[in-house]
């Protein structure tokens, strides 16, 4: 597996798993009926944002991440990031590799910290992964996410210094 910058041509390969993950409504506070065009706007970032893809040897895109300043101006020294791994390839270390890659990118860019704004507390896989990459939960907004199965659950703000 290799991680590289995404190009506009990668969107058709990202869209099927982006759509699957967003339509499930369990992990992102995006509209579940988000269209491909809207998804492209959300995910494919221009500088200072950056979008990367994880690709297999045969060039199949199996995951993607995006990172950008979490705030503007006086808040722009803290990065944020989002991650999606094709569910057909989950549990194979792709999310961890993307997480480590994005942390390295942010460090290289001189960000002082990384903050995740809305990690669904029921998303135990993601919470465990981010904790193992050095993030801590700095707070939880109660019942801020309406999970299709679990009902109202909290959204964690997770943070780590770089
Ligand atoms: C969360 C996500 C990015 C993880 O990617 P992944 O490639 O499946 O994760 P990895 O294989 O790298 O596993 C990373 C860690 O997840 C945790 N994990 C893996 N499988 C798990 C499971 N079944 N239950 C709980 N935790 C699990 C472990 O901590 C694992 O660490 P390890 O490397 O020590 O085993 C991916 O599942 C995904 O895209 N989910 C949908 C969208 C999403 O939730 N994005 C993140 C929003 S905050």
Count every beta strand, where a strand is a DSSP E run of 2 or more residues. 7
From the 3D structure, determine the CATH topology.
Answer: Aminopeptidase
What fraction of residues sit in β-strands? 35-45%
Largest beta sheet: what is the strand line-up?
1-2-3-4-5-7-6
Enumerate the distinct ligands.
Answer: coenzyme A
Overall average residue pLDDT: 98
Indicate the low-confidence ranges by residue numbers.
Answer: none
What is the percent of helical residues? 25-40%
The topology string of helices and strands comes to EHHEEEHEHEE
Q: What's the architecture in CATH terms?
A: 3-Layer(aba) Sandwich
Number of separate helices: 4
Notes on the structure:
The protein is α+β, with helices and mostly antiparallel strands. It has a single domain (2-161), classed as Aminopeptidase. Helix content is 28%, strand content 36%. The chain is built from four helices and seven strands. A seven-stranded mixed sheet has the order 1-2-3-4-5-7-6. Residues 21, 27, 83-85, 90-96, 116, 119, 123-126, 128-129, 132 line the site of coenzyme A (COA).
Keywords:
162 residues, alpha+beta, Aminopeptidase, globular
How do the strands and helices of this protein lay out in sequence?
Layout: E1 2-5, H1 11-24, H2 36-43, E2 50-55, E3 61-69, E4 78-85, H3 94-108, E5 113-120, H4 124-132, E6 136-147, E7 151-161
Parallel strand pairs: 4-5
Antiparallel strand pairs: 1-2, 2-3, 3-4, 5-7, 6-7
Bound molecules: coenzyme A.
């Amino acid at each position: 597996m290799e991680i590289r910058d995404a190009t506009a041509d990668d969107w058709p390969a990202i869209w099927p798993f982006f759509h699957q993950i967003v339509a499930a409504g369990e992990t992102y506070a995006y509209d579940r009926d988000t269209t491909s065009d809207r998804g492209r706007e959300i995910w494919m970032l221009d500088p200072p944002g950056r979008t990367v893809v994880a690709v297999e040897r045969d060039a199949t895109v199996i995951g993607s991440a995006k990172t950008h300043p979490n705030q503007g101006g006086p808040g722009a020294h803290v990065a944020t990031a989002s991650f999606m791994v094709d569910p057909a390839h989950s549990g194979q270390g792709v999310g961890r590799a993307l997480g480590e890659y994005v942390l390295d990118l942010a460090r290289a860019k001189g960000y002082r910290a990384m903050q995740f704004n809305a990690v669904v507390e029921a998303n135990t896989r993601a919470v465990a992964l981010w904790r193992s990459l050095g993030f801590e939960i700095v707070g939880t907004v109660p019942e801020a996410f309406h999970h299709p199965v679990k009902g109202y659950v909290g959204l964690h703000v997770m943070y780590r210094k770089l």
